[in-house]
Design a protein that fits this description.
The chain is an alpha+beta fold. It folds into four domains: 186 residues, no CATH class; 101 residues, PAS domain (Beta-Lactamase); 76 residues; 142 residues, Heat Shock Protein 90. The chain contains 15 helices and twelve strands. A hairpin with a 2-residue loop joins strand 9 and strand 10. About 1% of the residues have low confidence.
Length: 540
């Protein structure tokens, strides 16, 4: 038994001693020399006063008592002595208060071990024997006014009482030992259960998938943190509610419940869209299993909810990458088949243009053919550059210098009226990149932005270094991109310009990805377009 528990028992024992003292005071008031002539009221009152005083002292002891077992042993010794004094003062062998020894022995079984109880019983037997046979040896007239002769009945009573003390010590001590063993086992199991419950709660709340437990009536009984994040419904509002009140009728819970009752090992998987708090839809996959007890009884359902948004986005990117790869292979074939005939055509037209005897009409026609051939050759070069990208030549550069060069070249081009270029970056922006290819990225994006503002506007180029990466934003105040066109802007051959080839943005997308970066386009009709490029920083 630990010190804290024994201290608590000592305090309870002190209250029990006060109750016994009160009973003795009542008995003291009811007894009189006429009814019990052998009683000594001075000794009786002294014994009761000692019991009350020692009980009060026990109640004043601190809870952090260092050696409560010694205190308990001393208290029990005092109680044996006090009981002896009361028995001696109330008639000795014929005293009606001999049962006090039994109470002391029982108390020792609770406070001490079985050996302590046997020791207390032995001490009680010795003291009681002294009470019985002592008057024949020592004068105790101060404590006992009755005759001091020891009769055979007194001796028999002495042996019976001493045997009773030992039997009580053995029996109550065994019961106390069993109680302590059961108490320790119960405390250990309670602690293990508490630790297990805390561990299960920690796992339940920490797992990344949403876990939702339902009872037989389809009401939510458990709801972890991930489920609240996926559904947007807090646990305080979800627990106790029916499934339909939180997730709607997209899943027939009653049918799933019947299915798992028929086959507890079966599971059901459903994919649906949940309406998030911001109004957007979150694609989720929910798998239902039977929730079973340790004995195998079906208690309800356990639903595992998984947010499919990242997977859906990855699938869309994979499909786009597959399309782009197919287009790239097709582009390489087209370039191979067209470029050789185009070279022959260009050579023939140049010879035709140098012949001055063909007349002005023929000269003009030849110039048109040469110009269109050059445009076609430029298109073929872009196509080949996209289909057969040159290997990256990474080197440390300052991205701010690259942006300055691009904007300086752009300012020396004929720009639409009222187009303003704003620089939103300063300082050093270190990054490892291929200077030529990264310059081509920003040139294409800035040129597209300027060409989109046919009626004038503002081109804003900003850059910001963050922890581990750089962000470059290129914004225009043009008419924006239609929502239907936005998912296709990085696909080859897709262009909203009358003479555009659709290769430029596809090339931009590929170069950014090869640099380990990402590109994001946000556009709203009539509010312009913002392209954000994220690149790994050298300061990561």
């Amino acid at each position: 038994m630990d010190a804290l528990n024994l201290t608590d028992l000592l305090r309870k024992f002190a209250w029990a001693r006060l109750v016994v003292a009160g009973f003795l005071l009542i008995a003291w008031g009811l007894l009189s020399p006429a009814t019990v002539p052998a009683i000594s009221f001075k000794s009786f009152g002294a014994a009761v006063l000692i019991t009350v005083a020692s009980s009060a002292l026990l109640l004043l002891l601190p809870r952090s008592l260092t050696r409560p077992r010694i205190t308990a042993s001393l208290t029990l010794i005092l109680d044996v002595a006090t009981a002896t004094l009361i028995v001696l003062a109330s008639g000795g062998p014929v005293s009606i208060f001999t049962f006090l020894y039994v109470l002391v022995v029982i108390a020792s079984c609770v406070l001490l071990s079985r050996q302590g109880a046997l020791a207390t019983a032995g001490a009680s037997s010795l003291f009681y024997t002294a009470v019985v046979v002592g008057p024949t040896i020592f004068p105790v007239s101060y404590f006992l006014d009755a005759p001091t002769d020891t009769t055979a009945l007194a001796v028999l009573t002495m042996f019976l009482n001493a045997g009773t003390f030992l039997v009580v010590a053995i029996t109550a001590g065994s019961l106390a030992e069993h109680y302590r063993s059961a108490h320790y086992a119960l405390e250990g199991q309670r602690k293990d259960l508490s630790d297990l419950q805390a561990f299960k709660d920690l796992i339940f709340q920490s797992v990344g998938a949403g876990l939702i437990a339902l009872d037989h009536d389809g009401r939510i009984t458990a709801y972890n943190r991930a489920a609240a994040e996926i559904s947007g419904v807090p646990a305080a509002r979800a627990i106790g509610e029916p499934w339909r009140a939180i997730f709607g009728d997209a899943v027939d819970i009653d049918r799933i419940m019947r299915a798992v009752r028929t086959d507890p090992r079966a599971f059901r998987r459903h994919e649906l869209s949940l309406h998030a708090a911001g109004g957007s839809e979150v694609p989720v996959a929910i798998t239902f299993w039977a929730l079973r007890s340790g004995s195998g009884d079906t208690l309800g359902l356990i639903a595992v909810c998984e947010d499919r948004s990242p997977i859906k986005q990855m699938e869309a990117r994979l499909r786009q990458a597959d399309r782009l790869a197919t287009v790239g292979r097709m582009a390489a074939n087209i370039a191979h088949e067209i470029r050789n005939p185009l070279a022959s055509l260009t050579g023939a037209i140049e010879v035709l243009a140098r012949d001055t005897e063909l007349g002005s009409a023929r000269d003009r026609l030849a110039q048109i053919v040469v110009r269109e051939s050059e445009r076609l050759d430029h298109f073929i070069k872009d196509l080949l550059e996209y289909a057969r990208p040159a290997p990256l030549a990474l080197q440390p550069i300052n991205l701010a210098d690259t942006l300055d060069e691009v904007l300086l070249l752009l300012e020396h081009r004929p720009l639409p009226d009222n187009v303003k270029i704003v620089r939103g970056y300063s300082g050093s922006l270190p990054v490892d990149a291929d200077p030529q290819q990264i310059r081509q990225v920003f040139w294409n994006l800035c040129l597209n932005a300027v060409e989109a503002m046919t009626d004038g506007g503002e081109l804003r180029v900003g850059a910001d270094g963050r922890v581990g990466h750089l962000e470059v934003s290129i914004s225009d105040s043009g008419p924006g991109i239609r929502a239907a066109d936005l998912p296709h802007i990085f696909e080859p051959f897709f262009s909203t310009k009358p003479e555009g080839s659709g290769i430029g943005l596809a090339l931009v997308h590929r170069i950014v990805q090869e640099h380990g970066g990402d590109i994001d386009v946000r556009s709203f009709g009539g509010q312009g377009t913002t392209v954000t490029i994220t690149l790994p920083s050298r300061n990561a």
